[in-house]
Amino acid sequence: MDTFLSIISIIGALVILGIIIMVHELGHYSIGRLCKIRILEFSVGFGPKIKSWVKNGIIYSIRWIWLGGFTKFYGEDDELDDTEAFNKQPAGRRALTIAAGPAFNIVFAFLFAVLVLSAFGEFVPVVNEVWEGGPAQEAGIREGDIIVEMNGVDIDFMMETAAAGRKANEQSMTITVLRGEQEISYDLEKQYFETYGELQIGRNMAGFSYTHEPTTFGFFEAIALSFKWTFSAFRETVIGFLALFSGLFAGAVPEGVKGIGGIVEELGYALRQNFMYLLQLCAVINISLAVFNIAPLPALDGGRLVFIGIEKVFRKPVPRKVEGVIHFVGIILLFGLMGFFLFRDAVGWFGG
How far is the C-alpha of 109 from the C-alpha of 280, rounded, in Å? Predict the structure, then answer.
């Protein structure tokens, strides 16, 4: 029974991933059509076709490898002397069409955020231990205080503590807590702790720890906070990708980075266990797909926007064959990176 549920959850995860990819490609497709750019094919997935059909001169296809998808525009990488060709369109139309894919993912993530915050709420940081003899205890911070500001960062969700942590220093901390209906602010001078209980510290600390507890919002409050939630998730994703690429260039991969296999596994787990987490994960995957695609790298949307920028600056496009070769090399490297993470995920599944 467990094996059957695992298989069903993996299939469900692949369907969800396919829908998210379709949203991205739907951005390119729909804005491309609005800009009257000729489309040859709209595909979900790569590799051999499962099914295809033709409507209004456009091939629609579903392919076996759900690790991506594409919208193929007429004359996208060719030097065609044809006004219908993609590269003969004004630069603004091309840029808008390319940027539409990531933009659709961000909009989709926002809609998931509205659904999560209005239906389930979120988690907020709550003080769960005040250390004996520490600055927090002396200032009057209590267990159960809800943290609403830390180091100058207003906190409505648990994920915003990451931004507060990046603003931390070794000497002091500002913190505002909600106790009942009252907000209380503190300026704490940190104290050196070699140890606390069984914990090995060896640095200055404010002398408290916090955990997360659920909270709920009204519908209109949830809509307003969804903008902030989406922005916060976008910011943390950008920081995560910068750490990933910095690590790759340094010859190391940061811990916790998941490939396609890991994402499918996590989606499958969420399908079996927690609907709220599933919706949050869908929002995060949409944001991750958008951030990854706007990276200024060959074969990605960001890389194509770079070439359009070069064209506008120098008033002359890079030769299409040269651009095509660069994007092709980028695709090979991208598949190599995806293959590496897929292999690492598989080692984790079967190797323990």
Answer: 9
